[in-house]
Every structure is written in structure tokens, then in C-alpha cells.
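Quality-control log, excerpt.
Job 1 of 2 completed; input and output follow.
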Amino acid sequence: MKERASKESRSKITKKLLATAKDYIAAKVVLFSACQDHQTTAGIDNVRKLCLSFVPEGTKGGACTSLFLQVLYHNYKLQQEYNRRRRDSSDSNHEHLQSKLAHPPPSITYGTILNHMQQVCERNNYTQIPLLSCSRPIHLYKDPFQIVPDNFVQKSPQGTKRALIIGITYTNSPHALAGCQNDCRNVIAFLKKVHSFEDEDITLLLDDPVACDDLNQPTKKNILRTFRTFSMQCQEGDVVFIHYAGHGIAVEARSCDEPDCFQEALLPVDYMTSGEILDVDIFRLLLIPMPKNVLVTALFDCCHSGTILDLPFQYSGANPVCDYDSVVFPHMQMVEDFRDRMRKVKKTQDLQDSKS
């Protein structure tokens, strides 16, 4: 009886949390983070040692981005091979071969990707534990992972594939990173090859004066402006991919309303003069303006990135204990201070509105 009452109580909490989430986040947002909030991430001198299923740009890169792309490219190649064999069997009219191809490769799930990233990190002695969080509850092992839904129609009255890609190497800085631009170029190549994203719909910010002009340098001003304009461009029916490769930090919160009294933040290229970009600013500028029926997939390959988007539901292989019905949502943890975080966002938004 107590177990049933406890389950019903958790169900009510989840429904209330979901209602709050929908009030603040109209879009469906899924975030793959390189690590948990208290962790740092691995930079790899030679990503080819991971036996990637694609040819990467350069040799240096982030473990999170490389492993994310590895499992998706592998699935893509399986699907391509299946389609090829099916065409060949159809042309040859070979009944035995056709019967063997009756079942396509299994759909890739959110759990497939998360488990692969975690297992390879552990096998290579990387201490980071990749994390998945989202704006709506999902089933790790039943819901298929899709950057672009099967029913998506490109350039229809409602439907554009958009990407926001930010990579920062901090050249000539004491905290320079070597592989972030490589990661971004690998992500763009994947989006174009596998999902047919078009150059005109890809917004790229790199600290590379050859690839990007002054307006697309990843300064704090440019990043915040891009968050605002990018989210306002999105329309119902769009699919969005967001990728960040650079430094992430944890800064002491001005008021202790975070679980650990720290806020997560990104470091723009001019962080030494302009400061960091706080999670609350990412949320209010990038996520809140997104309209409903937009599917957002985000990949943040940086330190302290676990809750960088302040999403209400989290999944982690590090803690398989459920806060809800394990049969329905295995490995799901609810961010029960989500309402407090949203009050902080509203307070920040009101303050910014009063200044404008």
C-alpha cells in the first residue's frame, strides 16, 4: 500500500513538473552533456584511436562529440547497407535474400547513444559521465532517437532544418583548446551528409578569422545576440541542432538557489574582458522564445555541462535509481528545484526588461 501511495505521489509530482516545464519551454528539447555539473571533460590528442566510424577533421577533438557522431554514423551506415542490399535483392528477385532483409536495422534509441558514450569513456579511463536531460519525459530504450522526424518535410510552410554551431579554441589564451573547431566541422559534415542540412540554415560562430567574420566571432556579445536572433527565427515544425564546443565553468551563485550553490556557464572567446555566459541567460534567450512543435537536439561538449540548459528531466547511467515508475521511465531523475530555477529565470528576465 505504501509503495502504491509513493508511486502515486511521484506521479503527481511529475505531472506538476511537466506542466511547469510546458509553461516555460514550449519546444521539445533534448540535451546530451559531456559530463555532470561537477566534472571536467576529456580532450583527445588523436580521436582516431577511438576507431571512429567516420573520418574526422584533424586529429584533436572532444570525446563527447566524437562518440556521439560515432554511434550515429555507425547506425547510418547500417541503414545504407540495408537499403543497398534490399535494392539488389529486389533487382535480382531472389526470394531467399529478400526474406533475410525483411527486418531493417533496429532504431537507435536515446539509451543506445548515452550508453555507448559512457562505456567508451569508462573503457578509456575518462572520468566524465555523459548525461542526458530533456524538457519532456522520454523512455531511454523505447523512444527512437531522431534529429529529424520521419514525417518532417523540408521547406514546407512549416519546417526548416536549422543548426547553431559554436566552437572556441581560445587561441593565444592560457586556456587554449585544440580540437573545438574540428568538432564543429565534424558536426556540420554529419548534419549535411546524413540529414541534408543546408548551409544557409547553419549559423556558425568560430574564433577563426578565415571562416567567420567579426559578427560571427564567438564573443559574449555575438553569442548572446545570436541566441536571441536564432531562437526568434525558429518556427513551428522546425528541427534544430545546437552544438557548443569550448570551455564550461561553474561559478558561485549570487543567491544559493542552485543545489550546489553554483551556476553553470560558458566562456566566450573574450571571457577575460567580458566575463562568462550564465545558464540562466542561455535559457531565457535561447530556449524560452522557441515556439511549440520545434524539436531541439543539443550537444554541449564542455566541462560542468550537466544542467547547462536547466531542463527538468535527467537521465544518467551513473545513478540508475528512478524517481518515478522505472517501468515507464527507466533511469529518469526529476529536477525537483526546476520551479525555483524558473523563478530565477523570470527574475532575471524582468530585470533585463526594466533596463531596456
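Job 2 of 2 completed; input and output follow.
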Amino acid sequence: MIKVFKKRIAIIMAMTMLLAALPFTTAYAKTNKKTGISEGSSENSSSSSYVGTTKDNVYENEYIGYRVALPKGYSYAGAKALAEENGYSVDFITDSDAVLKKIRNGETITVAYAESDTDYGNMNIGLVKDDTVYSSEKEVFELVRDEIKEGLQGAGMTLRDSSINKSYIAGEKRNVIYLHSTLDEYDVDIHQKIVMLSKDGYWMIITVSVFGDEAAADEFLDKIEKIGNTASSENIVGTVKKNVYINEYVGYKVTLPDGYKFADSEELAEMNGVTTDVMDDYDEIMKVINSNNSFVAAYAMNDAKEIFELRVLKYDDPASIDDYLFGDDMQNYYRQFYKDTGYTVKDINIKKETVAGDKHKVMSIQTVKGETTFCGKSLYVGEKDYFLFISTSNYSKNGADSMLGSIEKL
């Protein structure tokens, strides 16, 4: 009886995934008659690069530029199951030229399908070709919202909620479609999340369906990566070894001057508002960085309470990071912050200084509290996606300069 129940649920969930993904093709057909092969050299790539390949439990689409690994306990279906999913023969589904032809004619083909080894969760990756230019995934979803609702009802489900939310997918903020439905016969909640990735009119539609816990769907989204993005979480966050902080992603290291000591994981956890368990897991730290855009990766202090902070920043527009970190808005923020904490800002200036052999823009802030003067300096290193923001607070300019002198290229 349990096996029958599981099979029944799995079949219905697979149907709902297809119903969630396939209507996008319907929307394209309504708004666009231009299908088939586009002009241009990009069509000369091999058919397998468009259709994608599955190996070692990872689906990879070279043309669109993404790979999708699986959470623990899931596995991709073989050719036979994938053929059944599409209603085609095994010979067809293993012929990338034939599959690509169908895709280019506007048909959605399921190119990868994964199921849980223990429950009913599953994931579907569909491909379709359409040359219509949409303003966003939200526009597409609005076109097919009613059709999705009707399709789910036809599969014995009631749509309880639907929304479009921003989430980080492969390091970038994207629209993610969320569907919350009830499988009426069993009164079971199903959560689905849909991500659409595209390039030159080719759309890769990833649909995840899980029971009970919406967070389980997010585990799939965390497994989506850009091809060629080989930076590990540890490289981006950086590591502390004795008195040296190393960040391989930005290519710099910082050696603490004598008398300074790095904060331990408990202290860093408190600074970042996370549990100590998070500090032991680089992937979990990356989730915090991608969510909050900032994380104190290392923090050091001496007995005189002079400090050295190393903060990883996620910033989506590298071309404007100078203005973000050093512009008028940030300077006004510092002035208000110091005023609120009892300090008087005497001077803020920004100029190029030589750090680790290169010229960098450095912000210097001089503050006074009572009889004590403080000198802080800050700069960033890095060129894209993730940056390392380095800041100091010392009793003298010489002390701040000495701190910057401890920064080196790897």
C-alpha cells in the first residue's frame, strides 16, 4: 500500500511540475510566431551543448552556461525514465540532434529529471526555444498564471498561493516563482519553485517540487552554479591561519602586526548575528553573504583596542562600487554614525594610496572623543562579484598606515 501511495504521489507531482513548466511554451506561442533557428554563428555549437548532459549526478548545459547538482538523497533519472517523462522513445531522447530540433520548433523537452531516494520530492529541467524579448520572468509568469492554476486543478491540486520573490541563484539575484498547492485527495502541501535561465532565446526552466517544507526546495536552488565559476566558498570567505588571513578569491592576505589577535568563531558569530554552527560551514556563510551582502570574515584587536576588520561584500554592480563605498551617501552615514556614538568627525578625505604595491582609493576618517583622537582608514580589494573591505581604527595616522602595510598580494 505504501509503495502504491508513493508511486501515485510521485506521478501526480511529476505531472504538476510539467504543468508548471509547459505553459510557458503556451505563452510564447500566444505572443510570438518567430520560432526555429536564429541567424548567427551561435547555432554552430554542437547539439549536446544546447541540450545538456548528465554525468555523476550533475546536469550541465554548456550553451546556457549553468550546471545543476543535486542535494543529498536525490538522483537523476536514466534515459528510459526520461523518455517516459517526455512521451518519446529512448532512441529519441538519447539523440541530441533530434531533441534540439524539437526544442528549436518551440516544444518544451524535459532534458533532466530527478527524484528523491526516500520521499516524493523531485525536480524537472525543461528546455524551450523562443526569441521573444521579455522584460523579466515576472512578465512570463503573469501571462501563464491562470493556465498554471487550471493545470494544477486538472491534476487534483488546489493552488493556495503564488508569488515571485528575489533569490540569489548562482551568485546573482533572480526572480523565483513560488507555488504553494494542496494535493486534495491526501490533504498534503506541495511547495514548488521555478527558476528560468536564458541565453539568446533558449530557456532552461528548473522546477522543484517538495512536500511539507518549503526550505527543502531552496536546497536545490543552492546547487545551481555558473559553469566556469570555480571559486569555492572557502576561497571567497577566506581563512585564518595563526596570525594571517588569506583570501584566495580576491588574491590578498593580511598578516597581523605584533600585539593583535584575531577574534574566535564565537565572537565572529555574535558580530554577524549567526550561530557558531554557521561559522564552521563555509557554504552556510556564503548563504549569509548572498542574503545580507556583507559578512565580517575576520576581526582583530590589540590591548589598546585598536581594531582591524576584514569584511566580505557581495555587490552586483562592480562599476559603481567606488560611489557605494566612498560617495556622499556613505560619508554622510559615517558622520551620523559617529555623532550618534558620541564622536566628532574632524575630517573625511579620500585619496589614492599605495597598498600592496598598487594604487588604491583609501578613505581616511579622523574623529575625536574627549581628549582622544582616532584615525580610521578603509579600502576595498577585488574586481567582481565579491570584494574584501578592509578597515582600521587607530590612535594615530602612523598606526593606520602600519596596518595597511600588512596587506600583501598572494
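Post-run check on job 2. Residues 233-409 form a domain with the Protein Transport Mog1p; Chain A fold (CATH 3.40.1000.10).
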